[in-house]
Amino acid sequence: MKNNRKGFLLPAITLIICGLLSVPAYAATPGSVENLRSTSHSLNAYSSTPRITMAWSVPNNVSTSTVYFYSVFNTSSDYTITSDIAWDLDSSTSKTTISEDKSSNNGGYYFHIAAMVEDEEGDELLGGTTTKGPYYIDTKAPTNTSVSAPSTTNNQVVTLSLSADGATEMYISNSGYAMSGSWETYVTSKQWELSDGYGSKTVYVSFRDAAGNATDGTDSDTRATITYQQNTAPQIRDLTTYASGTEYSAPNIYFKLYDYEGGNITLTVSSSNSTATTPENITISGITVAGGKTTYTISTNADEERGLTLTILRASTGITSTVITLQATDSGGASYSDTETVTFSIKEYSITNNLNVEFSNISISSEESEMIIQWQTTTEVDSAGFLLQRSENKNGPFETITDRLIPAQGNAFSGASYSYSDSQIESGKIYYYQLVEVDINNNQAIHSINNDLTRSGDEVDTLIYDANNDGKEDIADVIYLLQILTDFK
Question: Are residues 484 and 374 in the same domain?
Fold first, then answer.
């Protein structure tokens, strides 16, 4: 009943003298209620029940049979019922109460209660406030749900991306919402195996919060449709080899890479002779290539051909041919391979002292960690390029240190400047170099660079080589070079 009682007054003290002075026993101020508890909710826990039921016992120090209880539910953990507040609260003699429906106001609630008795003069004595809580009410299912997966897959196991505000659990199924499975801890990413058989698949996901509120499946964002199709192997198409490489030119293999599904393709290049080739360059238009040497990862688009050019380099001069195998493997493990024979056409060449290249200078300098070989030409007619050779003995044998021909840059009317850094040397050793000139007909001319230059620290020395090839390094070499420069001018 609504409290319409009088205001709270101090109890009167009446002294009665009846032969002797005596004090009658009046009602005492009640203490706190005993055994305060909720019979519907647990402390610090979520519940989907929208009403909170509370129960208690009368204070221990109350002897009167009539006890009134003032109580209130609110969101405050620190609340005291005073005489001023009590006038606005409901009071009852019952030892239980039920809150209003909190369905529209989910959150944490506290229950506050104080006992009241009347003394013999009708004055109200209000006890202390007892508080219990919080009790959490959550009647709403998780919101902002989302389930995403690849629209098409060749793998029976797919990755699901999941999202739901307020979710603590999820239930994933290939059959329907909350069917043929179990609840598990909510995560944002999950590997999931689709049902057997190719075709269209639907994955159903239910989300549940700590209070037990679950999504009902009416939201399309709680399911994903996936087309599970058989994985087709990538293809190598139109394999063609221009395999007539010369001593210094590398043959190319041209082909097209195709994958119906698209994705990352691993291209492996192998040779029938493991030392025959060194695949290093793969030229692709519009495709990102990662990897190198013999394995390449190529990103392809679905149902689209990509043209590739693979350049084959011979590892040594004794090799005349090799069988190249190309194997393409997609992310699903399906693979396809094809082979092509590559031949290296080695033309007999003659060594001559004079080709149609005129030099103006050849020098060697020692840097801190390398030898710098530089040369200049004044004219170059039908020149293919140059090779550099090195030996630790003046009379050889010489080993070619350039892994490929250094292309000629000049022409019949003007020369060019060249430089090569040799860092594969050891400190304290003497090295000898010779320059090999090669024309377009594979003819060669060897130019000795005789010197006793020792690799030593940071010193830089420039030496004149045996320019006129008379076996001596003297003033005649300088005169010879000056004549060349004079004629060129």
Answer: yes
The CA-atom distances, in angstroms, between 245 and each of 157, 309, 320, 345, 386 are 47, 15, 10, 5, 17
Phi, psi (rounded to 5 degrees) for 277: -135, 160
CA atoms within 13 A on the CB side of 434: 20
Residues 187 and 125 in one domain: no
Beta bridge pairs of residue 445: 437
Q: Digits of tens for pLDDT over the chain (489 positions)?
A: 344 443 443 343 333 333 344 434 456 899 999 999 999 999 999 999 999 999 999 999 888 778 999 999 999 999 999 988 888 888 899 999 999 999 999 999 999 999 999 888 888 899 999 999 999 999 999 999 999 999 988 889 999 999 999 999 999 999 999 999 999 999 999 999 999 999 999 999 999 999 999 999 888 899 999 999 888 889 999 888 764 444 445 567 788 889 888 888 888 887 776 554 444 444 444 344 445 556 778 888 888 888 887 766 665 656 677 788 889 998 888 899 998 887 765 544 344 455 677 777 777 877 777 888 888 888 888 888 889 998 888 878 888 888 788 888 888 778 888 989 888 888 778 888 888 888 877 788 888 775 544 443 333 333 445 555 665 555 565 565 556 555 543
Same domain, 361 and 483: yes
Say if residue 447 is in the same domain as residue 463: yes
CA distances from 203 to 165, 179, 218, 469 (A): 20, 11, 14, 83
Q: Which residues pair with 72 in a beta bridge?
A: 112
Enter the pTM of the model. Answer: 0.48
Domains: count for the chain: 4
Out of 283, 317, 344, pick the residue that ends a domain: 344
Phi-psi region at 393: left, alpha or beta (left = phi > 0; alpha = psi -120 to 50): beta
User: Residues near 416 by Cβ (< 8 Å), separated by ≥ 6?
Assistant: 376, 377, 380, 408, 409, 410
Q: Is residue 440 part of a domain?
A: yes
Q: Domain range holding 420?
A: 357-488
Question: Does 447 map to a domain?
Answer: yes
- Indicate if 126 and 155 belong to the same structural domain: no
Last residue of a domain, one of 166, 201, 228: 228
CATH number at residue 173: 2.60.40.2470
φ, ψ of residue 406 in degrees (nearest 5): -80, 110
Residue 60, judged by CB atoms within 10 A of its CB (0-12, 13-18, 19+), counts as exposed
Cβ neighbours around 271 below 10 Å, total:
19
